[in-house]
Design brief:
49% helix, 306 residues
């Protein structure tokens, strides 16, 4: 996983930067870092390993997808319990001064920090899909720090603020789930929107922007109500729409394009998997069955249209 972005481990526990620092560590060594505290906030994202962390005297066994937020002045230390699997984590330090600046922009940036300070609950767990998005944002930040692109400093600030806002939003939404009635309305509105826009680009990001909820929540709503992912549902709906268009004598490639499929080979494989035969075979079988019931008008297409 992007080994060129890894950081050589240092036992240093203070910041050199006045704003923030971020590190990607991989390796089972811990250099026997003893209990310590910081003057800054520490976000710790656990990727892999056999590791526990002790926070204010309480030990927690970590699992992949855990995010730990350590406020200033809180004693803590991690212990590697075994060499396998390799100990991998991100460490993100951010100064109190930088956080004060974010608070001036909006109090939502400090929701998570304030929650931890009050509740003393330091560990938050992300499921696989949600954690992969967090990782992607972190890698984007690290890559920008290592780049020499135009506008680097401005982009880094955007990445940092976006990461912090994302963490606050996901934790807030997990702590404030919607009521069953709200969930059902969201589900129905999502179905209606998808079915009305099948010919358009329909990604989780698009749906999240349309409905002002996180894409992880949308994914959960579909899985909970249909047992399908959003992608699976959209594909099935598009295939049904294509099937009906083909049986209505629309050229197969035209039907593929008008129903939102951008790649014919992907459409062909999905159609065959869904209906057990190719689009051409499906149309031919239907036409034969239809002819048994009486004559019908058959529109012939040029071979290039098939």
């Amino acid at each position: 996983m992007k080994k060129d972005l890894q950081t050589v481990f240092s036992p240093r526990q203070y910041m050199l930067s006045k704003d923030f620092e971020i590190y990607y560590y991989s390796g089972s060594h811990s250099y026997n870092v003893k209990s310590h505290s910081h003057e800054h906030y520490e976000f710790y994202f656990f990727l892999e390993g056999n590791v526990s962390i002790q926070i204010q005297g309480t030990e927690h066994l970590l699992k992949s997808g855990d995010m730990i937020l350590i406020p200033p002045g809180v004693p803590h230390f991690a212990t590697v319990l075994g060499p396998e699997p390799s100990y991998r984590r991100f460490v993100f330090w951010i100064s109190q001064e930088y956080c004060s600046g974010l608070l001036q922009l909006s109090p939502v940036y400090m929701y998570l920090m304030q929650q931890v300070s009050v509740t003393k609950n330091y560990i938050f767990h992300y499921e696989l899909l949600a954690f992969k998005t967090v990782q992607a944002k972190i890698f984007q930040l690290i890559e920008e720090i290592h780049s020499e692109r135009f506008g680097k400093e401005a982009k880094i600030a955007l990445c940092v603020n976006d990461l912090i806002l994302h963490l606050n939003r996901t934790v807030y939404e997990s702590q404030h789930p919607k009521t069953p009635h709200e969930e059902w309305n969201l589900y129905q509105n999502l179905l209606q929107f998808v079915e009305g826009h099948l010919e358009e680009e329909l990604s989780l990001d698009r749906l999240a922007k349309e409905f002002y909820v996180s894409k992880y929540h949308i994914a959960h709503v579909f899985k909970e109500n249909l047992g399908l992912s959003v992608h699976q549902f959209i594909t099935k709906k598009r295939l049904i729409l294509c099937r009906d268009a083909i049986l209505g004598h629309t050229a197969i490639q035209e039907a593929c394009s008008m129903c939102g499929f951008r790649d014919y080979s992907s459409f062909f494989r999905a159609f065959k998997k869904e209906f057990g035969m190719s689009p051409k075979e499906y149309r031919e079988i239907f036409m034969r069955e239809d002819l048994k019931d009486g004559p019908m008008e058959i529109t012939l297409h040029h071979p290039d249209q098939i």
